[in-house]
Design a protein that fits this description.
- 3'-5' exoribonuclease that releases 5'-nucleoside monophosphates and is involved in maturation of structured RNAs.
- Its EC number is 3.1.13.1.
- It is a single chain.
- The strands form ten sheets. A five-stranded mixed beta barrel has the order 4-5-6-8-7. Strands 9-10-11-13-12 form a five-stranded mixed β-barrel.
- A hairpin with a 6-residue loop joins strand 12 and strand 13.
- Helix 4 packs antiparallel against helix 17, helix 10 packs across helix 11 and helix 11 crosses helix 15.
- The N terminus and C terminus are likely disordered.
- Helix content is 27%, strand content 26%.
- With 766 residues, it is an alpha+beta fold.
């Protein structure tokens, strides 16, 4: 058929008779819907023997490399992509997401990489997402227009192989939210006990799993972290070109003659004892300026990462893809290669390092009255653990830096603390868990990190520098990647009001809500028994912080302008703030010579144009990292508690539902369920407003934040889940329940001993 006779719509009638190869290719290319054998036959009016001949023709065309077959048995141009198909986002090039077809069966040809064009910023996509997309060729490549976001990771299962008494293999999921195991139809070389990746096969309800990758022993050192890395799709291997570039930039000259020389100052880095990198150091001294009586000068020196990681470089693109470092108890997945994160950008004691210095002038009331930023060279006098710095101040441990460095730091901090108290930021005492491992990676203990003055000191210096960075950029009308924390939503405040009413505590919705509003509420409660419960609900009423170029303030810190400046080794947002400061204050240094490294270290045009999109991406990466870190600690906690099944231990209720309540072990963490079905034959009311279960006959009430004794019934290290029972319920015999496929299924639905109360029942339905 001549080219001027091409049909634009497959619905039009085509002449009968077997089409030529060119006609088939044209039809496939122009079809707006998947073009399978049936659609081609219908379009050309083929019947009987002609359909058989078409099948042979299509086979010949596939053998000749003209076409191949994709999902739903639809044909498309060899090396091409169906007009509408399922894609998986696998990479990001600067701010452009890259996707590949979820199924690609063209032998000898790599899967094409499509540039994803998003129509809006809502529901931003990220690596690992699956989309249904419309595709088209553009120039020398392909682009994809998302039509619908599909269920994430639905084509990949992560679990442990288990062998049942009947000899059959099942896949036990590592995600505790998935309660159903999957029969394994093809285990490959996997053995019982192996941690594996698998693909689902079949259609509901007959879904089985085919093992694709064996990850090893789930209890081996680092396996808990690997589970989280694989589950959340966290990039953890640096491409070779990124490693090579890290080596190249690590040898760049410091240009000491063009930097402010701060090497004579007794500047110190104070970090956790298990810190893997050191990107900030501090110094303070009394201000000798008579115009600032009782005031101090301070310097917050931050690793000059922007000097090494330049816009548009391979390092920059990889750092943007990761967004942040991810910290696990047994390993760290760094944002930057180790040549930088653990070496040239880490402020090691006694070694010259490039730094971005924030100079602060602080008056006697603790207000920062002036600031300036310079590129400097520093030589850290010492890297101290928080505990050691605190011990030196308390006089329980000798330290040669006590007089020249630590005492001035504490004296200046006393002023900053005044300003903090006047600001009255949200003060919720939230314990942080620390997992302690031995040299073999085995868990030794789980403990709550002690909150020392040294922690608060560093925190206040960092906050002061972060505020100064934001305001300095605002003064130059330069772009800022703000750290935004919006006030609680009205819905959250209404829920909090209803909850407080159950304790006869009033909370006016008409007032202007500030952090001090919550602080005053906590102060009124004093040390009442319900204080932990109420603090838990106040925390749940808060919004989640994020990154954006539009300033909405930081509610929790009670600050009008706030940016992240102090951790560019591990947060991409900080790196952008450094670049903005370099450009705004003319801090560019000579361009690298004889190296394939970008000339500039200030913000690029791409950085300017994509600030909003990048803010969404790195906010998503931060949430991904937080979830992965929390889940990994939960697995370690479950592994630690597995040896204590059957014991009664102090716990605190973290959530209440109509089917039971969730609790965590005091000082350890990890969430476990107390099913209402194990709470005896008594009927319970579910009070939705009060987030409580209450016994009808006994009046016993179980509510969020309540402390109580519980017996540990099960601890599952694979998915990090726990199960508790009330101490007076019948104890399990023979330890934790083992999985048994012969046991009758669990009846689903609301337990029979639950009734629902609360005037807001309808409103709270999901």
């Amino acid at each position: 058929m001549a080219s001027n006779q091409k049909q634009k719509k497959p619905a039009k009638v085509r002449p009968a008779g077997l089409p030529t190869r060119e006609q088939v290719m044209d039809f496939i290319a122009e079809s707006d819907t998947p073009a399978g054998k049936r659609e081609i036959a219908k379009a050309f009016g083929l019947k009987g023997q002609e359909k058989i001949a078409l099948k042979a023709l299509l086979k010949d065309m596939a053998d000749e490399g003209l076409i191949d077959i994709g999902p739903a048995r639809a044909f498309h141009k060899m090396g091409g992509v169906p007009k509408v198909t399922v894609l998986r986002i696998v990479d990001v090039d600067d701010t452009v997401l890259i996707a590949t077809p979820e199924r690609w069966e063209a032998e000898g040809q790599p899967a094409p990489r499509l540039r994803v064009v998003e129509r809006s910023k809502r529901g931003a996509l990220t690596i690992g997402d699956r989309i249904l997309a419309r595709t088209e060729e553009a120039g020398r490549g392909w682009i994809a227009h998302p039509m619908k976001k599909l269920a994430k990771a639905s084509e990949e299962l992560l679990g442990v192989v288990e062998k049942m008494a009947d000899g059959k293999l099942w896949l036990r999921p590592v995600d505790k939210r998935i309660r159903k195991d999957t029969p394994i139809s093809d285990a490959g070389d996997a053995k019982p006990g192996d941690l594996v990746l698998a693909e689902p096969h079949g259609r509901p309800p007959r879904i089985s799993a085919r093992v694709t990758d064996i990850l090893g022993d789930p209890f081996a050192p680092r396996s808990f972290s690997l589970i989280a890395i694989h589950k959340h799709g966290i990039p953890h291997v640096f491409p070779e070109r990124v490693e090579e570039e890290a080596l190249a930039v690590a040898s760049l000259p410091l240009h000491e003659d063009k930097r402010e020389d701060l090497r004579d100052l007794p500047i110190v880095a104070i970090d956790p004892v298990d810190a893997r990198d050191h990107d900030d150091a501090v110094w303070a001294a009394p201000d000798e300026d008579e115009a600032n009586p009782g005031g101090y000068k301070a310097i917050v020196a931050i690793a000059d990462v922007s000097y090494y990681v330049r816009p548009g470089s391979a390092l920059d693109k990889e750092a943007r893809k990761r967004g942040n470092s991810v910290y696990f108890p047994d390993l760290v997945v760094p944002m930057l290669p180790h040549q930088l994160s653990s070496d040239m950008c880490s402020l090691r004691a006694g070694e010259d390092r490039a730094a971005m210095a924030c100079h602060l002038t602080i008056n006697a009331q603790g207000k920062v009255t002036a600031w300036r930023f310079t590129r400097a060279v520093i030589r850290v006098a010492a890297v101290l653990a928080y505990e050691d710095a605190q011990a030196a101040i308390d006089g329980t441990k000798d330290n040669g830096l006590l007089e020249p460095a630590l005492k001035p730091l504490w004296a200046c901090w006393a002023l900053l603390r005044k300003a903090r108290q006047a600001r009255d930021p949200l003060a919720l005492d939230l314990p942080e868990r620390r997992v302690v491992l031995d040299e073999m990676g085995k868990i030794v203990s789980v403990a709550v990190r002690e909150r020392l003055d040294a922690h608060m000191l560093i925190e206040d210096y960092m906050i002061a520098a972060n505020v100064a960075a934001a305001k300095a950029l605002e003064a130059k009308k330069a772009p800022v990647m703000y750290r935004v924390h919006e006030p609680p939503s009205r819905d959250k405040l209404v829920a909090l009001k209803d909850y407080l009413a159950t304790f006869d505590i009033s909370f006016a919705l008409g007032q202007v809500v500030k952090p001090s509003t919550f602080n005053q509420l906590i102060a009124k409660i004093g040390e009442a028994e319900e204080k932990p419960q109420i603090m838990e609900m106040i925390l749940r009423s808060q919004t989640q912080a994020y990154y954006a170029p539009n300033n909405m303030g930081h509610f929790g810190l009670a600050l009008g302008s706030y940016a992240h400046f102090t951790s560019p080794i591990r947060r991409y947002a900080d790196l952008l703030v450094h670049r903005a400061l370099v450009g705004a204050y003319g801090l560019e240094l000579p361009a690298p010579k004889g190296k394939d490294i970008p000339d500039r270290s200030s913000l690029s045009q791409d950085d300017y144009e994509n600030m909003g999109r990048v803010g969404e991406m790195i906010s998503g990466h931060e949430r991904r990292a937080m979830e992965a870190e929390r889940e990994t600690i939960d697995r370690y906690v479950a592994a630690y508690l597995a040896a204590h099944v059957g014991e009664v231990m102090p716990a605190r209720i973290t959530g209440v539902q109509n089917f039971g309540f969730f609790a965590t072990v005091e000082g350890l963490g990890g969430d476990g369920l107390v099913p209402v079905s194990t709470m005896g034959a008594e009927h319970f009311f579910y009070d939705e407003a009060g987030k409580a279960l209450q016994g009808v006959e006994s009046g016993d009430r179980y509510t969020v934040g309540q402390r109580l004794e519980l017996r540990l019934a099960e601890a599952d290290p694979i998915n990090g889940s726990l199960r508790f029972e009330l101490p007076d319920s019948p104890a399990l015999r023979g330890g934790p329940v083992k999985r048994d496929r012969t046991r009758p299924g669990i009846k689903r639905g609301r337990p029979t001993n639950i009734r629902h109360i609360g005037s807001k029942r309808g409103k709270h339905k999901r």
